[in-house]
């Protein structure tokens, strides 16, 4: 009797991933809303409104780079310097950051990858003092990371969309890791571009208010980290 063949039902593998890099703000932590709130307040003082086309240009970048975008794009450069903008928002942000909460699906995904021995790290445009404020209640999640690269790291000469931060993050894993075997998770257009510039695959989990034109470069776009299917990337299934 002929042997019965079981039909192949698994989706094709998109890439063979061995290492994972996570963005932080807006991806692991629900902190982008704090930047939005504070920037709305500052612009409100000048009778202007903060919109998502400006947000898209600012998010993911180093503080000073995003501050330059803010004053130029809002036409406030005659009345406010990028440094002045950072100073004005700092006190408000320092109050908000310690209340940061995890985004949906973070705990489940990171615990799963950690339990299966997948090396992971964080690459965030945030500088060290802000990183500490934001993560102070999330030690368990961040302790599962092999390392963290922040925007003020000396190897990060330029912020996202430069590939600097992701290439520095890749170099700090054990051994030599081919960028093609690295999967980046990002929420920001500049971060997706940085990952592609580094030769890596990228899953984007964008805020639904971002215009769809910003989603084109990502290899996969998900509504939530909870929707991630590790099997599609050659990673151990849940
Ligand atoms: O999204 P991240 O973690 O690179 O952080 C960037 C800024 O701090 C916020 O947009
Ligand atoms: Mg981000």
Automatic annotation (TrEMBL):
GO terms for biological process: glycerol biosynthetic process. SUPFAM superfamilies: HAD-like. CDD domains: HAD_AtGPP-like. It is an enzyme of class 3 (hydrolase). The keyword Zinc-finger does not apply. Its EC number is 3.1.3.21. One of its GO terms (molecular function) is metal ion binding. Its cofactor is Mg(2+). Belongs to the HAD-like hydrolase superfamily. DOG/GPP family. This is glycerol-1-phosphatase. It comes from Dioscorea zingiberensis.
């Amino acid at each position: 009797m002929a042997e019965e063949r079981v039909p192949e039902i698994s989706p094709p593998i998109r890439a063979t991933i061995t290492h994972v890099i996570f963005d932080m703000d807006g991806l692991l932590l629900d902190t982008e809303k704090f930047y939005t709130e504070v920037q709305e307040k500052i612009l409100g003082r000048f009778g202007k409104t903060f919109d998502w086309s400006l947000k898209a240009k600012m998010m993911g970048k180093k503080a000073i780079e995003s501050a330059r975008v803010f004053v130029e794009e809002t036409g406030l450069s005659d009345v406010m310097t990028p440094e002045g903008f950072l100073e004005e928002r700092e006190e408000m942000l320092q109050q908000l950051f310690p209340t940061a909460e995890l985004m949906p699906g973070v705990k489940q995904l990171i615990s799963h990858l950690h339990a299966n021995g997948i090396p992971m790290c964080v690459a965030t445009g945030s500088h060290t003092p802000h990183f500490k404020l934001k993560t102070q209640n999330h030690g368990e999640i961040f302790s599962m990371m092999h390392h963290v690269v922040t925007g003020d790291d000396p190897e990060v000469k330029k912020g996202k969309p430069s590939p600097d931060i992701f290439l520095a993050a890749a170099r700090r894993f054990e051994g030599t890791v081919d960028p093609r075997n690295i999967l980046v998770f990002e929420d920001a257009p500049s971060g997706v571009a940085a990952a592609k510039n580094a030769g890596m695959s990228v899953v984007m989990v964008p805020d639904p208010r971002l215009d769809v034109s910003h989603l084109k470069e990502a290899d996969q776009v998900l509504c939530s980290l909870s929707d991630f299917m590790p099997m599609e990337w050659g990673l151990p299934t849940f």
